[in-house]
C-alpha cells in the first residue's frame, strides 16, 4: 500500500503540467462568475481554482480562520481588571462556577446581583460542561465565591479555548454544510463557494464579539445555521430540533423565530396542504423542548425529594411572574418546585422590567430618542409601540416567505426579520447586530453572491455593524483588533475604504449603481470622519456622549437601509409581484 | 501583531536601543548594566541607533539604559512595528528574486518567495520571539539574487559584506561566497590561471571600505578585541540551552543511551559528568561515555564539510550551484558548529527555498528539512497561549507549501533515489505523534518531571531530519 502511493500524484501533475496551458481557457469559460480575481480574497484562492479538491482546501481554510480567531483572542476581554463587576467574561466564568458547585435547582436563584444566570438552560448546561473540564485542570478557577473576578492568565486561555472549541463543534460545521448546500442549490461552483466560506468565517463582527470581547454567540448562531441548512436539505424535524436548541442557548434566537415558523408553515401549506407534516413538525418541536428542559426538571424533582430547595431559608416566596398561579396550585405538591423553577427561568430570561433600550444601540428607538425624549412616555406605551413597530417590520418578509417557501429566499427573509427586530424591538443590545448580519452574510454563498451588488451591500452592513460596536470595544481598549480585523475583511472583499471595485459593474442600470455608490460612499465617509472626530476632538462637556449618539444615529439610518435592501431583494427574488411592479420597486428603492 | 509575548530577546533589543541611543559610540561595547550586552556587529548597532531616534518619539522612557524590563504598551507596539516595517526589506528582496526568474520558473519563484515571506520560522522568531531576522534575510536574499547576473556580482559581494557587519552568523556562509566570487569574478571564465586584477581590486577595496565603515570608529580607540570578545563567546558550551538539532544533539542522545547500556558492555563512565546537574539541559555539556568535543574539532569538521561542496562549486560555477553551495555551507556549520542556536536553521532553509523548486530531487531533500527545521523551533515558544498559533500555523504552512511545491516542481532529468523518498514520507508522518506527545501527552503523564525528555525527542528527531536531508542534498548536488 505504501509502495505505489507516493508516485501517483506526481504522474498526474506531470500530465496536468503538460496540457495545462491548453486546458486553461476551458476552465476560464466554465467559471461563469469570476473571470479574473476581482477582489483580493479571490486572488488568494485563485491558484486553488482549477485543480485542488475541496478536501484539500477546507482544512487549510479552517486552519487559517482558526489562527485569526486565536490570535485575536490574545487581546484583552471585556471587563478585564475593571472592578467591581467586570464584564461578560466574568459573567460566563461565574456561570461555570455556579453550575458546577450548586445543585441544579438553585442555578436560576443564586445571588442574582452578581451576574445571575439569565440565559436559557442550554447555556447553563454548556457552562456546566466547560466548568467541569476547567475544574479538572485547576479547581481554583471556579471555586465558589473565591474565584470572582479572577484574571488568571491560564484561565483566560482556557476560556478562549472553550469559545474556539464550541465554535468549531457547532458553528463552523454548520457554516460549511450550509454554504455547500446553498451554493449547490444556487448553482454556484465549488471554488466560488469556498471563497464565500472564507468571507463568512472571517466576518469581523463575530470574531470581535466572541473571541475578543468574549461571548458564546457562535454557538447559538451555529444552531440557527444548522437549522437553516436542515431547511435546505428538507429535514423538517431537524429544523425544529436545531432551532429549539438555538433558542435554548440564547433567547436572542427569537429574532429568527418568525421566519422559521413562517417557512415551516409555508412548507406545510404549499404546494398542497400537508397535515401529517404539520403534526410531525409540531411534535418534533415539543420533543425538542422536552429534551431541553428534561435535565433541569428532573434535577429539580430529584433534589426536591432529597430536601434541597431552590432558595435555602424562605420556603415559598411569591412567584416573580404570573403571581396568580400560586393561588390555583398546591404549593406543597411535588410538581410545584418545577413550576417555580420554570417561572423563575422565564423571568430571568425575559427581562420585561428593563427599559426600552439598555445602552446606546443603533436602533430606531435609541436614534429617535435623540429627537424626542422617549423616557417621558410611560413604559406601557413604549412596550406596545415597540411591539406594533416590530410586527409591522417583520410581517411583510415573513408573509412572503410563508407564501413562497423557497429555499433560496431563506437568507433574505431571515436577515430582513432580524433587522426588523434589531431596529424596532424592545431591549436590544449592540451585540445583537450579529443576528441580522449572519444571514445577510450568507448571501455571499448564493447566486451572484460574490457579484458586486451583493458584495457591496453585505460588506456595507458588516462594516457598519462593526463600526457601531466601536464604542463598546473602545471601552475595553480593543481598538487595534477592531481596526485590523475590519480593515482586513474590507480588504479581502475589496470594499471601501481599501478599494472601490465593488461598485460600478457593467450589466445593471447605471442609475442604481450610482445610487448605491453614492449612499455607501456617504456612509463610509461619515464613518471615517466620525473616527477622526472621536480620536482628536473631545466631546463638549455638557454632552459627553455626543460622539456615541452620533454613531447611533448614523448606524440606525444605515441599518434601516440594509433592512430596506433585504426586503427589496426578497420581494424581487421571490417574484411575488408582477414584473412591471418589480421594475418600479427597484427604482423606488434606489432613488 | 502579537502583543502578549515577550521573550528575553525583547528586552535584549530594548536594551540595545537604549545603549545605542544614550551612550557615545565608544561605550557601546563596554556597557553592561543589563546582562544582555550588545553582541552584534556594528552595523546592527547603527541600525538600532536609527530606530532609537524614532523610538524617542514613541516613548522616551523606553531608551533609558537603566530602565530594565521596561514594557509600556508604547514600547511593545513600537518594537513590534519596527519588526513589521523592517520586514519590507525582505519583501523587496523577494520581489527582486521573482523578477529575476523567467518563463516557466516564474511561478515556482513566486511560490518560493511567498513561502519564505510566510515562513513560520520567521513568524516564530521575529514576531513572537522577537528578533530582526526579516530584514537580514532580506539582505541575504538580495545579495544572492544579485549574484545571478554578472554585472551585479560586485554589488552582491558588497551587500554580503555589509550583512556580515550586521550579524556575524552569516560568516558561516562566507566560504561559499568567497569561492564563487573568486572563481567567477576574480578569475577569468576561460582559465582559472588568468586573474582579473581590476575586479579583484574593486571587490577587495569595496569590502575593506565596508568593514572600515563598520569597525573603523572602534578601531580608532583600539576596541576591536573587546568587540570580538563580545561577538565570539567561545566560553559557551557545545550545545545551546535547547539542543539545536545537529550532529551533536544526536551525539548527546547516544551518550544518554550509553549511560544506561555502559555497565553491560563494560565501558567506563565519567562520574562527574553523570552527576552534573545541567546534564544536557543548559550550556556546558559533558559526556559520560563518549569522548568530549572541543571547539577545534567542531571547527575542523565544519570546514571539512564546507570544503567538499565548494570544490565542486569552484570547478563548475553556476548560480544554482552557488545557492546550493551556500545551502551546504549553512548545513555544515549548523550540523557541526560549536554552540549552534536552533534559530540558525533558517540559514539553511531560506537559501534552500530558492532552489527547492528546481526539480523533484531538490524538493525531496527539502521536505524533511522543512519539517525538521520548523519542528525544532517549537521549544522556543512554550506559553500555552501561543502553542496553537505556532503549531497550527506551521502545519498550515507545511501542508500548503509542500502541496504547492509538489505541483510546481518539474520532473527531474535523472533517476531519483527512491529509498530517500520513502525515508522522507515516513519521517514526515512521524512528526505528527511527536508534536502531539511533546506538547500535550508528556505534560499529562509526567507533569513537571523529566522536562528534558520532550526537548530531547524533538531535537533528536529534528536532527535525524536535518542530517538526512543534508545527505540527500549532498547526493543531489554531486550527481547534478
From TrEMBL, chain A:
Bilayer topology: Multi-pass membrane protein
Transmembrane segments: 57-77, 157-179, 191-209, 221-246, 253-273, 279-301, 381-403, 409-426, 433-450, 456-473, 480-497, 517-539, 546-572
EC code: 2.4.1.-
UniProt enzyme class: transferase
Location of the region described as Disordered in the Swiss-Prot/TrEMBL record: 1-24
Database matches in PANTHER family: DOLICHYL GLYCOSYLTRANSFERASE, DOLICHYL PYROPHOSPHATE MAN9GLCNAC2 ALPHA-1,3-GLUCOSYLTRANSFERASE
Protein name: Alpha-1,3-glucosyltransferase
Source organism per UniProt: Pseudoneurospora amorphoporcata
Automatic annotation (TrEMBL), chain B:
Catalytic activity: an alpha-D-Glc-(1->3)-alpha-D-Man-(1->2)-alpha-D-Man-(1->2)-alpha-D-Man-(1->3)-[alpha-D-Man-(1->2)-alpha-D-Man-(1->3)-[alpha-D-Man-(1->2)-alpha-D-Man-(1->6)]-alpha-D-Man-(1->6)]-beta-D-Man-(1->4)-beta-D-GlcNAc-(1->4)-alpha-D-GlcNAc-diphospho-di-trans,poly-cis-dolichol + a di-trans,poly-cis-dolichyl beta-D-glucosyl phosphate = an alpha-D-Glc-(1->3)-alpha-D-Glc-(1->3)-alpha-D-Man-(1->2)-alpha-D-Man-(1->2)-alpha-D-Man-(1->3)-[alpha-D-Man-(1->2)-alpha-D-Man-(1->3)-[alpha-D-Man-(1->2)-alpha-D-Man-(1->6)]-alpha-D-Man-(1->6)]-beta-D-Man-(1->4)-beta-D-GlcNAc-(1->4)-alpha-D-GlcNAc-diphospho-di-trans,poly-cis-dolichol + a di-trans,poly-cis-dolichyl phosphate + H(+)
One Pfam family linked to the record: Alg6_Alg8
Annotated compartments: Endoplasmic reticulum membrane
Biochemical pathway: Protein modification; protein glycosylation
Membrane topology reported for the UniProt record: Multi-pass membrane protein
EC top class, as a word: transferase
Gene Ontology biological-process entries: protein N-linked glycosylation
GO MF entry, a single one: dolichyl pyrophosphate Glc1Man9GlcNAc2 alpha-1,3-glucosyltransferase activity
Spans through the membrane: 77-95, 107-124, 130-147, 154-173, 193-220, 297-315, 321-341, 387-405, 426-446, 452-478
The keyword Transmembrane is annotated on this UniProt entry: yes
EC number: 2.4.1.-
Record's keyword terms, sorted: Endoplasmic reticulum, Glycosyltransferase, Membrane, Transferase, Transmembrane, Transmembrane helix
Function: Dolichyl pyrophosphate Glc1Man9GlcNAc2 alpha-1,3-glucosyltransferase that operates in the biosynthetic pathway of dolichol-linked oligosaccharides, the glycan precursors employed in protein asparagine (N)-glycosylation. The assembly of dolichol-linked oligosaccharides begins on the cytosolic side of the endoplasmic reticulum membrane and finishes in its lumen. The sequential addition of sugars to dolichol pyrophosphate produces dolichol-linked oligosaccharides containing fourteen sugars, including two GlcNAcs, nine mannoses and three glucoses.
Assigned protein family: Belongs to the ALG6/ALG8 glucosyltransferase family.
Protein name: Alpha-1,3-glucosyltransferase
Origin species: Pseudoneurospora amorphoporcata
Species lineage: Eukaryota, Fungi, Dikarya, Ascomycota, Pezizomycotina
